[in-house]
């Protein structure tokens, strides 16, 4: 039973003033917010500019880029196929991947299930790349992306690693089963049945002019771009539509929505898959946590250049809040707005953090890490010899190919993993093209080896950036 009466409604005026101040102070460009409670939308409003240059104001019906809030929509599209009997979430994803398959470099690829792909524990590493209009020819289709980057960095279920590649693979699974382009499939199976008329996938190019433009942290327009993994972040939706989506997830029967998933299927979307030390869990497309009283929270945030979004649902209270912004630095405003709204209903509200990973601590060398390691770094055509030396808790180096060893800085323990940062240029087409030389390392001990990934990073995350994953497998060399 809800602890918030259905008729209860706090004043939203302080939240309006918060948003208006942020816009007046140049800390926001466009903002849209919606609150759903008791099975209806109790507040929805837009503020500022959706597109300042076109003099298009933001409204509750303005489509904003959702960034990673796209992921729950992608998962719901797959769940519609489950409901139709076309697949099982606990089947190996490779069962449905025909032209390209996940490769089991550091784990058994057949145990990377559809469910694990959507819960960031399949063993696939993280990835991101944006392409402006002049680079559209550089973007790989999803099959080619999996072929180039679909290697397991870790054994499935062994650790949490946020993975856009997993959602690219889910899109291929869905398209292979239906013979339909993924954007069209999401529209057919999810957007249209739910009556989300403001929403569209990035392939609906003609509708882009109705959507919010994207701005950097200084309020400068960012030229239109697409990404390497559309199914993980390229849905556009309004605050109004996102509220309708939230009510569907809270099992409300909203007028104009077709019941294409039964309650069991909705529960499968929200069921914890991997629970982190903090108690925050990944699900098939979402994250879940609990307030101190035990009230469950289902949530997802999104962020990329020119985008910061947030959606929080408390199903037991039939309450949800969502905020959309078109600025790179909008994360703090999204949090403030959601926190003020939800604390107005539930004073105990505390926003959960979107990670199921362990906390970090200073690295302390252990026998499973110390010494000299040699192996291979691979992906995107690269197959380079790699050497790692860990001399102490604060001295380690990495060398790739015939290049000199570079020191690893900022070493931390992330649970049993070692993380750190080095520099170097990987001999692969994408790395050479982008000049990605900052190398972010994460390694786990596994069966006497060190396994994991190196993410080659370049660019400004407020405007345009790239994170390319390379899989690392190392064996210890006796001194």
From TrEMBL:
It is an enzyme of class 3 (hydrolase). InterPro entries: Beta-lactam-related (IPR001466), Beta-lactam/transpept-like (IPR012338), Beta-lactamase-like_AB/R (IPR051478). The keyword Hydrolase applies. Its EC number is 3.1.1.103. It holds the Pfam family Beta-lactamase. Keywords: Hydrolase. The keyword Hydrolase applies. Residues 17-330 form the Beta-lactamase-related domain. Signal peptide: none annotated. One of its GO terms (molecular function) is hydrolase activity. Belongs to the beta-lactamase family. PANTHER family: BETA-LACTAMASE-LIKE 1-RELATED, PENICILLIN-BINDING PROTEIN. This is Serine hydrolase domain-containing protein. It comes from Tunturiibacter psychrotolerans.
């Amino acid at each position: 039973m809800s602890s918030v009466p259905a008729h209860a409604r706090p004043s939203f005026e302080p939240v309006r003033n918060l948003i208006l101040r942020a816009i007046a102070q140049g800390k926001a460009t466009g903002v849209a917010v919606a609150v759903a409670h008791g099975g209806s939308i109790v507040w929805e409003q837009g503020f500022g500019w959706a597109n300042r240059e076109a003099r298009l104001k933001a409204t509750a019906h303005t489509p904003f880029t959702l960034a990673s809030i796209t992921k729950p929509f992608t998962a719901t599209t797959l769940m519609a196929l489950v409901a139709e009997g076309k697949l099982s979430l606990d089947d190996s994803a490779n069962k449905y991947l025909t032209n390209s398959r996940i490769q089991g470099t550091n784990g058994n690829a057949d145990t990377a299930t559809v469910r694990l792909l959507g819960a960031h524990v399949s063993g696939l590493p993280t990835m991101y790349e944006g392409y402006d209009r002049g680079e559209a020819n550089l973007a790989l289709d999803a099959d080619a992306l999996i072929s180039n980057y679909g290697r397991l960095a870790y054994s499935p279920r062994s650790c949490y690693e946020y993975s856009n590649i997993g959602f690219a693979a889910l899109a291929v699974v869905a398209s292979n089963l239906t013979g339909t382009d993924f954007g069209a499939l999401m529209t057919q199976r999810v957007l249209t049945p739910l009556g989300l008329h403001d929403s569209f996938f990035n392939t609906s190019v003609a509708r882009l002019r109705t959507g919010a433009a994207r701005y950097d942290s200084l309020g400068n327009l960012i030229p239109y771009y697409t990404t390497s993994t559309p199914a993980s972040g390229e849905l556009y939706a309004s605050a109004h539509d996102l509220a309708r989506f939230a009510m569907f997830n809270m099992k409300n029967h909203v007028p104009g929505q077709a019941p294409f998933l039964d309650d069991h299927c909705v529960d499968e979307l929200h069921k914890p898959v991997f629970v982190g030390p903090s108690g925050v869990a990944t699900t098939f497309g979402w994250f879940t946590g609990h307030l101190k009283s035990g009230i469950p929270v289902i949530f997802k945030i999104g962020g990329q250049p020119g985008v910061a979004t947030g959606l929080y649902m408390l199903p037991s209270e039939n309450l949800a809040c969502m905020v959309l912004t078109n600025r790179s630095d909008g994360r703090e405003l999204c949090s403030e707005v959601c926190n003020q709204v939800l604390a107005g209903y539930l004073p105990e509200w505390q926003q959960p953090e979107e990670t199921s990973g362990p906390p970090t601590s200073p690295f302390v060398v252990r026998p499973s890490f110390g010494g000299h390691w040699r192996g291979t770094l691979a992906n995107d055509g690269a197959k380079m010899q790699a050497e790692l030396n860990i001399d102490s808790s604060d001295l380690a180096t990495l060398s790739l190919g015939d290049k000199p060893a570079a020191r690893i800085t900022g070493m931390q323990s992330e649970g049993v993993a070692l993380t750190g940062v080095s520099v170097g240029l990987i001999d692969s087409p994408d790395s050479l093209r982008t000049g990605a030389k900052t190398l972010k390392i994460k390694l786990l001990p596994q069966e006497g080896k060190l396994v994991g990934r190196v993410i080659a990073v370049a660019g400004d995350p407020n405007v345009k950036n790239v994170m390319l994953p390379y899989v690392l497998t190392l064996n210890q060399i006796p001194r």
